[in-house]
Amino acid sequence: MPARSDVRALVEDYLARHPAERVPLRPLLAVLDAAAEPTSRATLPGHVTCSAVVVDRNRRILHVRRRATGLVLPPGGHAEPGDRTLLATVLREVAEETGIRPGALCLTARYLGTPIDIDVQEAAPDPLRGESAHRHYDVRFVLCLADDEPQPLALDDAGVPHAQWRAFADVTSPSLRAKLLAAEDHGIDGVDRGDAGDGLDGLPRPVNASALIHDNSGRYLLHLRDNYPHIWEPGAFALLGGGREPDDKSLEETLLRELAEEVPELRLSDLTPFAVERATGVDGLCLPVQVFAGRWNGDPDSLTLNEGVLLRWFAPDMLHRLRLHPSTIALVHRHAAQTDPPERPIDA
């Protein structure tokens, strides 16, 4: 089940952006302070659920009609024991109810993994489950489609017999509708987020930044990542970089922050955008990555490495011998083909 501390962090982040909602959400905070599992449907008189606000290119939100209640709402539901995070719950529910797999969805650069809305819903009694009337504290995450056209829906007819895309003004949840319309009219929060976009046009934008670091000998600097579960590409060679954070004003700022955290003494020259690549995140989402090319000439062993195992230079013709994602190999070869030949022979 999602960790209580992670759920609280999401809620506190949300309340920092919507302080006026702290009073109406006090019962949710009480649930998070109580001993019972906050995301378990057995926790009464209220527990945490979550929903997906899936936006298409026409600024419409996916809704499903639930057979049991007749309600028309964004897809979502209850956490299950195998769900590590609320976002994992959302992705599983979307796949189960509509057939849209995580790889067909992206986080938005504006919201990343933070909620757009938290709604309080009154749930009717369910005698078959032995549940009395209770509340759902529904945490909503914004996702957009990775491709121009949505894949055909494969509905779970037993629970979700119908789905439709609705304009912002026709979204059924009043709290979500208000936030969508306010964002459309006035921007999300009045803060300039540089190249982040507004997050509600349905266009996938990069949410990660990586550094394609090369030297005057035509070599490329690769990072051997820790072999820990729940990190991106564990135990493999990869590019340095990481994920955007809400306070980053640009993807270049994201990259420089990540490099300062990972390799604080590394200073790159000629840092320029090179390509946008698609990867698969640890949660299965499609992950657009802005790759920046930068030059550095130095000894990796002289650097302090705060994350991962080691840094090493490799010539492009050595990459096939490494545990390295094929797309990264292709990226390096593409950059090498567009770059002036090495100034001096590559060391054997």
From TrEMBL:
The keyword Metal-binding does not apply. One of its GO terms (molecular function) is hydrolase activity. Its cofactor is Mg(2+). InterPro entries: NUDIX_hydrolase-like_dom_sf (IPR015797), NUDIX_hydrolase_dom (IPR000086). Residues 45-188, 204-337 form the Nudix hydrolase domain. It holds the Pfam family NUDIX. PANTHER family: GDP-MANNOSE MANNOSYL HYDROLASE, MUTT_NUDIX FAMILY PROTEIN. This is NUDIX domain-containing protein. Keywords: Hydrolase. It comes from the Bacteria. Transmembrane segments: none annotated.
